[in-house]
Amino acid sequence: MKKGTVFIGLALAGSLALTGCTGGSGGSGGSASGGLSGEPATGGTLRVLQNADFSHLDPAQGFDGGVNNFYRLIYRTLTTQGAGEGAEGTEIVPDLATELGTPNEDNTVWTYTLKDDVFFEDGTPITSKDVKFGVERSLDPSISIGSPYAKIVLDIPEGYEGYYLSGPLDSIETPDDRTIVFHLNQPYADFDAVVGQAPFTPFPADADVTTTSIDQQPIASGPYRVTEYQRGSTLVLERNEHWDPETDEVRTAAPDSFEWTFGLDAATIDERMIAGQGEDANAIAGSVAPASIARIQTPEIQSRTVAGLQGCTTYMGLNTTKPGMDNVLVRQAINVAMDKEAVKDATGGSQLADIATTIMPPTVVGREEFDLYGTEDQTGDPEKAKELLAEAGYPDGFEFTLDIRNQPKMQAQAEAVQQSLAKAGITVNFNLIDTSTYYEVIGTLSQQHDAAITGWCPDWPTGATFLPPLFEGSQIFEKGNSNIAQLNDPAINERMAEIRLMTDVDEANAAWGALDEQIMELAPQVPLLYEKTVMVVGDNIAGAFSHAGFSGGIDYVSVGLKSAE
Amino acid sequence: MTTVPSELAVETEAKGALPSGGAPTPARRVLHSLRTSPGAIASIVIIVAIALMAILAPVLSAITGWDPYEFDPTAIDSDLGGLPIGPLGGVSAEHWFGVEPGNGRDIFIRVAYGAQVSLLIAVSATLVTTTIGVVLGMIAGYFGGIADQVISRVMDFLMAFPTLIFMIALLSALPAGNRPALLVIVLSIFGWPYTARIIRGQTMSLRNSEFVEAARASGAKPLRIAFREVLPNLRGTIIVLATLAVPGYIGTEAGLSFLGVGVTPPTPSWGQMISTAVGWYAVDPMYFLIPGTFLFLTVFAFTVLGDHLRKALDTGDAA
Amino acid sequence: MLFYLLRRVLAGILVLFLISLFTFAIFFWLSPDPAVQICGKTCTPERIDQIRSQLGLDLPFLQQYWQFVSGIFVGRTYGEGAGAITCAAPCLGFSFQTNQSVTDMIADRMPVSVTVAVGAAVLWLLAGVGGGLLSAVKQGTGWDRTVMFGALAGISLPNYFVALLLQYVLVVQLQWLPFPHAASFTEDPVAWFQAYLMPWLVLAFGYAAMYSRIVRTNVIDTLGQNFMRTARAKGLDQSLVMRRHALRPSLTPVVTLFGMDFAGLLGGALITETVFGLNGVGKLAADSITKNDQPVIMGVTLLAGLLVVIGNMVVDVAYTGLDPRVRVRSA
Description:
The complex is a heterotrimer of chains A (565), B (319) and C (331). Chain A has 565 residues and is α+β, with helices and mostly antiparallel strands. Chain A has 20 helices and 20 strands. In chain A, helix 13 packs antiparallel against helix 15 and helix 14 runs antiparallel to helix 16. Chain A starts with 9 loop residues before the first helix and ends with a strand. The N terminus of chain A is likely disordered. Chain B is elongated. The longest helix of chain B has 37 residues. The N terminus of chain B is likely disordered. In chain B, helix 1 runs parallel beside helix 9, helix 3 crosses helix 6 and helix 8 packs antiparallel against helix 9. Chain C is mainly alpha-helical. In chain C, the strands form 2 sheets. Chain C has a two-stranded antiparallel ribbon with strand order 1-2. In chain C, strands 3-4 form a two-stranded antiparallel ribbon. In chain C, helix 5 packs antiparallel against helix 6 and helix 10 packs antiparallel against helix 13. The C terminus of chain C is likely disordered. The chains are: A alpha+beta (565), B mainly alpha (319), C mainly alpha (331). Chains in contact: A-B, A-C, B-C. At the A-C interface, helix 10 of A face helix 2 and helix 3 of C. Chain A: InterPro entries: Peptide/Ni-bd, SBP_5, SBP_5_dom. Chain A: Keywords: Signal. Chain A: This is ABC transporter substrate-binding protein.
């Protein structure tokens, strides 16, 4: 049924997007695709230069591309994403489990078998009970701020508050130490992706594991264990001797250790990576700033540059409940007026972003390419927008308030939006929101304004984790709302329910792709960009590539050193 | 940037006092002394030029054909991260000072509008702090007693404050609202004691001078003495203090905008431009050099002028 | 003398108390709910309530303030049971965004800030006093004019602008220095020196300019005073006169100033640390302000206040020792 074949066509879509952008840059050939060839040598210390520390070491709590990428070094789950560029990386493959899950007829009961010879860092074998405990622990209200899918699809009784407050969960059965059975509250064809989410990480069911202990001292099931951690400054991983490479087809885990340095300025990181001197030859880092793009065009630096799509869409959500914005013609006018080139340039130009025309990015399986509101050169069509506005009853222009985050890149994007819409007689006022509360404010119905610039990354690259959170009527919440368009369209809602019942994943993925266009006809958002990562790595780095499942970051479990000293 | 005009306070304190009381210095002599100093003339020229640039910003915008928010995609190279095309950050006949990377906005016009914001905030803050400082300083110095105790304690307290950190904290906690007004208020709260302290000291010495004694003996009311007799004698001090306060506030405002708690975008501001330019310093140095040079010239000119005024008033006294 | 000291200490404590109350009040009333911020993107109402009670955010203002103050002296515990977090005295608060006690965070960053501050202070004292003396002795000459013009320019140049200029010239154009990045003194002293050189220069620049102006004025004043004329009239050697009689009274105000400025460096170094990406307390404050991590902002503000108050006291005491004319100065 699913078995990985679902991701055919992704590589093609990816390369299309990369080469399809207008102009095509001189000298960017090396960075436009993929990674550095060459097998990493075993051993050595790989360094990572990073601005901010990881959000949480506890997999129940951390929930972003960067930390998920990191979790794979120290944790294992029943399934995981592949290790490879493009489609290979976003394919769901078995990890602790011998193979992908076996569902019952209607996809409501899923059974997995654990591999033999898998151990925690202290040598204790990992059993199905540990996986069960890990999930139960993650449901404790004090830490359940990570990936929400366990909460959403498992059959959990009303008022269940995790292992410590409510005890074991009946809907996860462990008939023996190798077998685990999950009972769901709905048919869920994508469940193999769910058990690969971080909260499904096993922890010893009998040890001194508390709600807070893992965040301080993780218990490794993956190839490395945390040996030193100073929050905000350094993190050191060393080999977990009890991890057996024979049991792991995903992780290369070539270096003997990893060393993170946190708290470095973005500019400092760029400078160091460009210079690549001394120990920085063994270092990798995140995407460079726009200002550094011009400096990495030399052949030497291009030869150690890795690039890829983040796998996310940056968009401007339009709040369909606000006066004026509730008119589809107005929303279409805004789409037509948008100068996406300007937004792209403000974000860092063609090397750091492609122009978006669809809600879902090219990395999503089943996504269809279309452009309902395309204009010449993507620079917007003020005249056509004015016509649409006049038709909508706003012949003298329109005015709205845009929520923006107090952060340079977002401000630059907002200024580009403001400028391009001004040409069509649309006045954009800014509501500047503090970085730390931005998502909270735009996710609170009573506080959000007419529009907001934000982004969405799928938790795994299918429409199931992209369209419903953003556009399903039942997903409008007073707080923590992701449907910031507040779209509640009966036809769309109905179609989503239908797709969810499909047991054939391919069919479902294609249906989501078609639904994308159906939603865009209502113009509840303006897709702006598919942002890219461009990363410079050290001279001695091998096996580095941008992983589409981890916001385009370098896949940690595959990267290593060319020569391990 | 250091905080409010600490340099000013410190220097005047170290010197004992500014132009000490006594007979008012004839304005003519001061003007003459300024006119003969090339430094003073140069600084006045710079100040006038920058003030004109600020006032005439809309006219300049009409002449160059660029408004401060207008993008110019043809001036930047999208494939190089949005770097300005051409030498010196895109300097051309069209863009006299080049353009901003990433959007191609005209730097010349943004600097001109930035001057508006800078001067407006600094001059307003100077007016507010000078007024409060003079009034409270005179009350404390002339009446002494409880009034002096209270005002002096408040001043000590405000001056013992970790000002910069606190201003940033305060501005970041305040809702966005009207930023320039908020900036003026915050700058004023921490700025007035520096004026008040000096005014207080001079009022105290003037209180015991012969002409004040004489006025008192003739039965004049205290308030009348304070404003009719004492205030005119403080004129020189006030002018010097105000002149030296302006650059302090310009610098602090730019510093706060640099740190991201000042004027909000897209309003152009020098500090904010330099802050954005930080990332670009290696590939597009003109982006920080131009607003930085304007900021420097403005602060420099006001400081030089203040210095000269003080000297002129000083020698006036000595003569 | 003892009474005087006691009075100074009491006044200092009062100032600190007011600073803390002020800062606390501002965040209490003006700032968005910290519980909401801590909770993050996938928040639940239960979690918000939990954080609120854990942090004591559900209590009235004075009670919260009291908890904060008592935490400084006796430490405090957030929450109860297995998930409780203890914060040992002196507890300046607990940052739930980073899961660290504010005291620890500041202590971690302190060495960098001290390095920046001490290095810069040495530089600016040398340059400021040296430049001022030179200017005063060579009054009216080209030396004097050059130093004074430089000083005027120095006090007018914002330090972030100087930082960018230096970086552009020394790192990009001349390539005399590598891009600064933190290195440990014991492991690699050369890299350490290179990393701190520019921050020292930048931070010292403005202060040096200011000090040279003040020193010059003071020395010229002193030289013009009666006792100096007498000393010279007695036929004492010029340089001896300078050393014995002119330096001491001229530099006394500099000591006052230096104490205050050094104590205020936590705030003064904020921009320098931020521009050069040095992880000191100033950058901690700037970062926490961006993230709106209130406990940390509170802690740093209070610490900065404490340093200023202590600086004031030390200066007063030192002043009485240095200048025989001032034995007791009113507070």
